[in-house]
Amino acid sequence: MHIQVTFAVKIRHVSELYANQKGYKTRIERTYQTNCFYQLRGSAKPFYPLASSFFAKMGCMDGIKDTLSQAVFSPSTLLSGRGGLHMAQIILCLITFILSLIRGFSSHTYLIYAMFTWVFCPIMTLFITVIEMFKLDIILNMFCMDWGDFTTGMAMSSTLMTVSVAITYANFYICKTCLYNWIVTVFAFLSGFVYTLEVVKDKFFDKKKGSYLAALPGFWKVMEAFVSCMIFVSLTGYKDSPALILCIIAYIIPFPILPVIIATNIFKKLKQCLPFNLDRFVFIFLVISVLLYIFAAIMWPVFMFRNNPRPKTCPPSYCIWAIQFMVAFMTVVNLILFTLDLIFTLLGICNFKRT
């Protein structure tokens, strides 16, 4: 057996020439990244052990050790502009949560969702801050995920959540004589504002390009999940109608699958371990979701508003009919989102993976 190998160690692209006893040749291209990451494409399977041995000798393990050695405590992260934004986000969200809690807890679903947002968003921001402060993002970036994409995507998601709850809180709880609620609303909008600043900084000043969560395909899934949440917190007046209960089942079926799809695409290694094609699964999921939302978009208005006209006195702050209409409106919005998601996936446009 004659093997001819040409190595170029100090450049990114390594070309290797392999010829077996039958006389055919296979060209293999490698992209050598971070002393260890490379992609091997080709059909010369007998050469894999030799390649593995070669890169081990080149110091692949030393590269990993060097990367791990960089994961050290770095408090200077808090003094950067990004660290300052994170601290402001955590403080403002916690102040808003505490002020809302002092005002008095109620079973109003919009308030529950708002308080959940003011806890969830700062917890995720604190998690990101701690990871970056100890430089653990280097390890995560190396082994399992695109950290920059994750952080920018979380900032975009937190912006969507905090701004929306600030608007709903203002709609339901502000009045001319409610000074305390005005204070809570101001802090709620400030929380949304600092998250918006981070998104603007990442996208327009730092020019960060997302690979999934911070790109259109991933954030589209986030918007579908967000609209589903708004539907759930608005559900009311359905207990005595089997048709409306079927609509709720149609809302529930796609919802838990969305975060699974998002998490699987964030953790690249997990995606590679799946025993099935994730992109094909997503396509089937989108088809089923569109059908379910078509059903709900027809059935909810018919059975909810039949013999149920808008009352003459329907205050904007709290009106059951208006909330029921919100469900119908959000159903159509999510139907449009799922339909466009399906079309973009079929056509393979806007960075959506064609199935």
- What is the element string, with H for helices and E for strands? EEHHHHHHHHHHHHH
Shape: flat
Helical fraction: 55-70%
Distance between the termini: 41 Å
Across the major sheet, the strand order is: 1-2
Q: List segments where confidence is low: pLDDT < 50 over at least 5 consecutive residues.
A: 1-58
Structural class: mainly alpha
Write down the overall mean pLDDT.
79
User: How many structurally independent domains?
Assistant: 2
Number of strands: 2
User: How many helices?
Assistant: 13
Q: Could you describe the largest sheet, including whether it forms a barrel?
A: 2 strands, antiparallel
Radius of gyration using CA atoms only: 26 Å
Strand content: under 5%
Protein name: MARVEL domain-containing protein
Family: Belongs to the MAL family.
Keywords: Membrane, Repeat, Transmembrane, Transmembrane helix
Membrane topology: Multi-pass membrane protein
Question: Could you describe the 3D structure shown?
Answer:
It comes from Oryzias latipes. With 355 residues, the protein is mainly α. The chain folds into 2 domains: 73-206; 215-308 and 316-354, no CATH class. Helix content is 65%, strand content 4%. It has 13 helices and 2 strands. It has helices at residues 48-58, 60-69, 81-103, 109-133, 137-143, 147-173, 179-205, 216-234, 242-252, 257-266, 268-273, 278-305, 320-347; strands at 13-19, 25-31. It has a two-stranded antiparallel sheet. Strand 1 and strand 2 (25-31) form a beta hairpin. The radius of gyration is 26 Å and the shape is flat. The relative contact order is 0.08. Mean pLDDT is 79; it is low at 1-58.
